[in-house]
Amino acid sequence: MKVLLVDDNEDFLNVMVELLKGHGHTPFVAQDGKAARELLEEQEVDAIISDVFMPMLDGVRFHSYVREFLGKEHLPFIFMSGYDDPYTQAALNNSAVDFFISKTTPVSEIMETLKTIETSIQA
Predict the structure, then answer these.
(1) Is 54 helix (H, G, I), strand (E, B) or coil?
(2) Which CA distances in Å does 40 have to 1, 18, 82, 90, 101?
(3) First vs last Cα of the chain: how many Å apart?
(4) 76: closest CA among 18, 120, 112, 111?
């Protein structure tokens, strides 16, 4: 499965890239929503994992771009954040958000979420 990772924390991206590769996925990386938007203009992906807080274009606005401008209402979107704040909570209350995973979530749960997405894509 091709997965777009969007996060401004380079260490976190490196860990996630290795994790995804180790489980047979193909990761694409962007360090903010603007770079991710540009990547999506050239590359099709099966799922997006995005941080909420990032410079240039944050995850919530990037999510809106994917859903509204690109018209990809069914592209699975996972928010990952280390914060539990009103802005993140407001984003989670949006019915168009598919999944939310804390950055402290065990690897097994992250992989299970991706497996659920992969199964739904194949169905």
Answers:
(1) coil
(2) 15, 21, 25, 25, 22
(3) 14
(4) 120
- On average, the pLDDT of the chain sits at 86
| Secondary structure class of 74 (helix, strand, coil) | coil
Token digits of residue 112: 């299970």
Is the pLDDT at 77 greater than 80, yes or no?
yes
pTM of the model: 0.85
- What pLDDT digit, counting tens, does each position of 55-70 carry? 888 888 898 899 888 8
By CB atoms closer than 10 A (0-12, 13-18, 19+), residue 89 is exposed
AA letter at 99: F
pLDDT, greater one: 83 or 20: 20
Region 2-122: CATH code: 3.40.50.2300
Quote the tokens at residue 15.
């860990």
pLDDT of residue 97: 58
Tokens of 115: 């497996």
Amino acid residing at 7: D
Which of 99, 8, 7, 3 is closest to 44 using CA atoms? 3
